[in-house]
């Protein structure tokens, strides 16, 4: 048997499409209401169209329920085009939109009186998660009637819960916090005073975790990102690179010197230096610094009768990446 391949596109369903679908008056009324919700971003209503631009199938996703997820509903493929893969294309397009909002799972329901679609949904990765009662209006020869049934619910995990260990520090949190409105990588870099390469490294990881999303080359915070900001940041402890005690010692030492504890004659210095240094030179600097510390602070070089006691804390670490627009 020969196959005929027809290109299809996916686009938003519109009011102008409704008369071409052959639906009942009651369903068209319900669809008009859902298209109005799409205008305010509560739902997406998509159509899979053939070369003529006319819908071959359509369906919607509701972002307001269930909690933490989204509901795919009103999945319909027009009669002549059933069993041609249109339903799969439609569901995958709706799932793409759900992921783009950082929502972790999709849910859909099957009327127990018409269980045929369940096999398709299970092939696409959906599993039964429960059931509920359902009811909606239908058209009958005697007029409008209320149809009641049991709905089997199926769910599919679309985004894995983010592994936040590598993202739970100040900079990625600041990036997500800045995205209360759409921003570009360069705008984020300017706001946070770091290089755009460093911001890009984190936003790509944040996007993979579903915490941010990109729209029209701008980054936005997802609902999952809002939840992320609501979780407490792990407290800094004394096994971090710069222990909290070190910060305390420095602050207190400068306060003590200003108060006159060390008298009029002492050496006190601090500084911060940064620059692009090749790896080999950074290794060399580290070794020379270690040698200098050993020369002046080794136990056999200390004069225990001397006063005051001096402390020397240091950190050598990469602090940023090469800007994207520089060679």
From TrEMBL:
Start and end residues of each N-acetyltransferase domain: 8-154
Family matches, as InterPro entries: Acyl_CoA_acyltransferase, ArsR-like_HTH, GNAT_dom, WH_DNA-bd_sf
PROSITE patterns: GNAT
SUPFAM superfamilies given in the database record: Acyl-CoA N-acyltransferases (Nat) (SSF55729), Winged helix' DNA-binding domain (SSF46785)
Top-level taxon in the UniProt lineage: Bacteria
Protein name listed in UniProt: N-acetyltransferase domain-containing protein
Source organism of this protein record: Kribbella yunnanensis
């Amino acid at each position: 048997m020969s196959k005929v391949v027809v290109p299809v596109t996916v686009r938003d369903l519109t009011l102008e499409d409704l008369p071409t679908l052959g639906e009942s008056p009651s369903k068209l009324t319900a669809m008009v209401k859902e298209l109005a919700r799409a205008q305010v971003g509560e739902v997406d209503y998509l159509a899979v169209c053939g070369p003529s631009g006319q819908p071959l199938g359509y369906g919607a996703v509701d972002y307001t329920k269930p909690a933490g997820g989204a509901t795919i509903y009103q999945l319909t493929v027009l009669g002549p085009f059933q069993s041609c893969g249109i339903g799969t294309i439609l569901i995958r397009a709706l799932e793409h939109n759900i992921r783009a909002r950082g929502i972790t799972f999709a849910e859909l329901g099957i009327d127990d009186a018409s269980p045929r679609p369940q096999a398709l949904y299970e092939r696409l990765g959906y599993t039964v998660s429960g059931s509920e009662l359902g009811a909606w209006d239908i058209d009958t020869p005697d007029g409008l009637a209320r149809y009641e049934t049991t709905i089997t619910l199926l769910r599919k995990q679309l985004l894995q819960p983010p592994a936040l260990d590598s993202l739970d520090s100040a900079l990625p949190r600041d990036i997500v916090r800045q995205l209360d409105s759409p921003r570009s990588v360069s705008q984020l870099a300017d706001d946070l005073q770091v290089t755009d390469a460093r911001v890009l490294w984190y936003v790509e990881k944040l996007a993979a975790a579903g915490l941010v999303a990109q729209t029209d080359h701008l980054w936005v915070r997802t609902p999952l990102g809002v939840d992320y900001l609501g979780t407490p940041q792990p407290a800094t402890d004394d096994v971090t690179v710069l222990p909290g005690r070190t910060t305390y010692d420095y602050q207190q030492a400068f306060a003590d010197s200003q108060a006159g504890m060390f008298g009029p004659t002492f050496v006190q210095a601090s500084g911060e230096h940064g620059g692009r240094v090749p790896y080999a030179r950074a290794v060399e600097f580290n070794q020379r610094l270690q040698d200098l510390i050993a020369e002046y602070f080794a136990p056999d070089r200390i004069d225990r009768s001397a006063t005051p006691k001096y402390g020397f804390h240091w950190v050598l670490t990469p602090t940023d990446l090469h800007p994207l627009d520089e060679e």
